[in-house]
Amino acid sequence: MLNIGERVFIADYGAGYIQDIVSSELYFIKDKYVNIYLLLDNMNFMIPIDKIKNYKIRNILSKMELETTLFTILSYPDYIESNWNNRYRTNKKKIQSGNTLKMCQVIRDLYYLKRENMLPPGETKILERVEGMVASEIMLVLELNMEQALSKIRNLV
């Protein structure tokens, strides 16, 4: 990992690619940073190399893994927590895991609540964010733009 041009996924931030590895000196202290361009927010994210293990960074999925994972959105939710606060915490943990399967479960569950007109405004923002994170990975794997990636997700719902 950590090669220029490599496609990665960072938990809580989405997918992007490594633009470069930069050396910087501040107060006579030299540090190396990995500069990652994030597709979801169109921003550069610089992580010190010596702290890279503090971030949940993984390679993006293969096409086959992605297609299999996206089918989770088609399934019916097993159980949805009725208490909003508990559901929020559970969904936040799934999103922070960086696991695309768990993020697809969140999308599936929140879209179910949306169809039933039971989705609170706070969870609408979570749905938009997790949708964007999964869409950013779809963009890299299938080489689509953001609108096409989002429509791929929404067509499954």
From TrEMBL:
Q: Which residues form a coiled coil?
A: none
A Pfam family name for this chain?
CarD_TRCF_RID
What are the BP-aspect GO terms? rRNA transcription
Q: Where is the CarD-like/TRCF RNAP-interacting domain?
A: 1-111
Q: Which PANTHER family match?
A: RNA POLYMERASE-BINDING TRANSCRIPTION FACTOR CARD, TRANSCRIPTION FACTOR YDEB-RELATED
Q: What is this protein called?
A: CarD-like/TRCF RNAP-interacting domain-containing protein
- Organism whose genome encodes this protein: Clostridium tagluense
